[in-house]
């Protein structure tokens, strides 16, 4: 898996100050995508075990409330266990929240994607649709996208939307 960038402190992608990973590679090619260059699976640098640990260590700061993973398309990164190992390690080492953005719909995730998402706290799902773009929305670009509370969704067996506390 390649990554495009890591932000030590990010206030745009989730609640609070977050440490953010932008993965490389996306097959959706949504018109109006704000990270077009990140659609190339070969863009950026290899996300090695050392890079993974650096990313996790950045988020251990008391200033950071959690981690955010977007791209590119995180849930396209399932050829190996890099992303799965990353979300597992975040929970094992920090137990901080994980937010993830995906163009895939929650109901249509495959088994590998579901396993990754089981470690995520908030999943923003759905492709960006330029005709539904709304700059007033928090943490998403178009009105079709949902902020899903993954833990409640898994425990209740139905989609539960995340609500700001």
Question: How is this fold's topology laid out?
Answer:
Layout: E1 2-10, E2 18-23, E3 45-46, H1 49-59, E4 66-70, H2 82-93, E5 97-101, H3 111-117, E6 122-125, E7 146-149, H4 150-156
Parallel strand pairs: 2-4, 4-5, 5-6
Antiparallel strand pairs: 1-2, 1-3, 6-7
Structural class: alpha/beta
Q: What's the number of helices?
A: 4
Biggest sheet: strand arrangement: 3-1-2-4-5-6-7
Shape estimate: globular
Low-pLDDT stretches are none
Give the rounded overall mean pLDDT.
96
Strand portion: 15-25%
N- to C-terminal distance: 34 Å
Quick one: biggest sheet?
Answer: 7 strands, mixed
| Total DSSP E strands | 7
> Portion of residues in helices?
10-25%
Q: How large is the radius of gyration?
A: 15 Å
Can you offer a commentary on this structure?
By secondary structure, this protein is an alpha/beta fold. It is 22% helix and 21% strand. It has four helices and seven strands, in the order E-E-E-H-E-H-E-H-E-E-H. A seven-stranded mixed β-sheet has the order 3-1-2-4-5-6-7. The chain is globular.
Keywords:
165 residues; 7 strands; single chain; alpha/beta; globular
Would you kindly provide a brief summary of this structure?
The chain is α/β, with parallel strands linked by helices. It is built from 4 helices and 7 strands.
């Amino acid at each position: 898996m390649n990554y495009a960038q890591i932000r030590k402190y990010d206030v745009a992608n989730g609640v609070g100050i977050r440490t953010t990973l932008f993965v490389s590679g996306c097959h959706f090619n949504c018109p109006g995508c704000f990270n077009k260059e990140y659609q190339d699976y070969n863009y950026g640098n290899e996300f090695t075990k050392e890079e993974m640990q650096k990313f996790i260590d950045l988020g251990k700061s008391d200033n950071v409330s959690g981690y955010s993973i977007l791209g590119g398309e995180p849930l396209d990164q399932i050829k190996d266990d890099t992303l799965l190992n990353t979300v597992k390690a975040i929970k094992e080492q920090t137990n901080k929240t994980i937010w993830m953005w995906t163009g895939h719909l929650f109901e249509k995730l495959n088994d590998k994607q579901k396993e990754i998402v089981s470690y995520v706290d908030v999943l923003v799902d759905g492709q960006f649709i330029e005709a539904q773009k709304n700059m007033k929305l928090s943490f998403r670009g178009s009105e079709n996208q949902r902020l899903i509370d993954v833990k409640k969704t898994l425990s209740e067996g139905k989609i539960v939307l995340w609500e700001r506390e």
